[in-house]
């Protein structure tokens, strides 16, 4: 029966959402908790940078086929599927909420959760760092452009130095510092394999609590009806399922190995709430941003829940594969 029970991390995610709904982070506490979350994410990237050898990082940077597959999924496949959801009648999925789904389809990938899940599942972490960071940098240009094309609205969000600065300071800089110190502390960190696990999972739980708290404080459960929210949840789940199938099986058809398949699956299927919310306030200035952001907030929670389960399954298969290989080596003749 244990295989049918949710794993500990998934249970923690559900509990985090419940706690955020009952006791959301507000005021001064939310500010301090946000700082703590940023520090946890920065620590995650520092440890990744310190653990990874220079050769592995260079290999990740040069893996252009993988990066191209992820970018085409993020800014190509997602918008096409979003346009397809436009055929759903308005009485099922109200137009303002559909526009929110279409908006999330043109957003860049998440960074911290994509890399954390890739690490948990045993994927190509250096390539995940490169692809997720590049997705957010390109997204500052591509997201306003795609919104202008798909929404047929005038103007665009322009270049956001704040988002770029956040990526550089919170993610890339700690990784570079870790890489600089890698010759001195890399062997020690690699010998402590369990060191990254609480940082991976803890950073995700903190991001979930902070993001969901903000949505609850802004009146998530009072602005829209239960039927409206249910329609958005179903549409988000269908969208995520289609993209997960395309990335998982498409990467196999294209000949990527298991580690790259994991990276493409997690980096290609994510959408960033951290980048999407501030971008929406600029791109849709003067309009009602609540309906635009609601599908993204729900999608953000759904993708974390689903990907947590997938990451654990990948990790379990990876552990079994290593055990089998070690067993074969032990029984093989010298």
Describe the structure.
80% of the residues lie in helices and 0% in strands. The longest helix has 42 residues, at 290-331. It has a single domain, classed as Na+/H+ antiporter like fold. It is mainly α and 334 residues long.
Q: Which features would summarize this protein structure in a list?
A:
single chain; 334 residues; mainly alpha; Na+/H+ antiporter like fold; 0% strand
Query: SSE order in H/E notation?
Result: HHHHHHHHHHHHHH
- Report the CATH architecture: Up-down Bundle
**Total beta strand runs:** 0
Largest sheet: none
Structural class: mainly alpha
Using the coordinates above, name the CATH class. Mainly Alpha
Helix content: over 70%
Strand content: under 5%
Sequence-ordered SSE layout with sheet pairings:
Blueprint: H1 8-22, H2 27-51, H3 54-61, H4 64-84, H5 95-105, H6 112-121, H7 125-151, H8 161-191, H9 196-217, H10 220-223, H11 226-253, H12 258-269, H13 273-283, H14 290-331
Helix pairs in contact: 1-9, 1-14, 2-8, 2-9, 3-7, 4-7, 4-11, 4-12, 5-14, 6-7, 6-9, 6-12, 6-14, 7-8, 7-12, 9-14, 11-12, 11-14, 13-14
């Amino acid at each position: 029966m244990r295989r049918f029970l949710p794993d500990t991390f998934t249970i923690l995610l559900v509990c985090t959402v419940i706690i955020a709904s009952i006791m959301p982070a507000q005021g001064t506490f939310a500010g301090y908790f946000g700082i703590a979350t940023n520090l946890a994410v920065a620590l995650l990237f520092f440890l990744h940078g310190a653990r990874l050898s220079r050769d592995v990082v260079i290999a990740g940077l040069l893996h252009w086929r993988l990066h191209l597959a992820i970018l085409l999924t993020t800014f190509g496949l997602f918008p096409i599927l979003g346009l397809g959801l436009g055929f759903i009648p308005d009485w099922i999925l109200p137009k303002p909420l559909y526009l929110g789904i279409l908006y999330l389809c043109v957003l860049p990938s998440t960074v911290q959760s994509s890399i954390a899940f890739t690490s948990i599942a045993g994927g190509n972490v250096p390539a995940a760092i490169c692809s997720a960071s590049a997705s957010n940098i390109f997204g500052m240009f591509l997201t306003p452009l795609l919104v202008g094309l798909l929404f047929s609205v005038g103007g665009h969000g322009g270049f956001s130095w704040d988002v770029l600065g956040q990526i550089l300071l919170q993610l890339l800089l700690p990784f570079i510092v870790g890489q600089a110190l890698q010759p001195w502390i890399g062997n020690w960190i690699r010998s402590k394999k369990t060191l990254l696990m609480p940082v991976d999972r803890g950073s995700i739980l903190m991001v979930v609590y902070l993001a969901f708290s903000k949505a609850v404080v802004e009146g998530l459960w009072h602005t829209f009806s239960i039927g409206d929210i249910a329609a958005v949840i179903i549409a988000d789940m269908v969208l995520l399922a289609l993209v997960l199938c395309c990335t998982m099986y498409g990467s196999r058809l294209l000949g990527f190995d298991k580690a790259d398949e994991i990276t493409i699956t997690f980096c290609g299927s994510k959408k960033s709430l951290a980048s999407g919310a501030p971008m929406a306030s600029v791109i849709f200035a003067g309009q009602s941003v609540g309906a635009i952001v609601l599908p993204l907030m729900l999608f953000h929670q759904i993708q974390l829940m689903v990907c947590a389960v997938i990451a654990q399954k990948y990790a379990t298969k990876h552990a079994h594969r290593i055990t089998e290989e070690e067993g074969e080596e032990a029984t093989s003749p010298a």
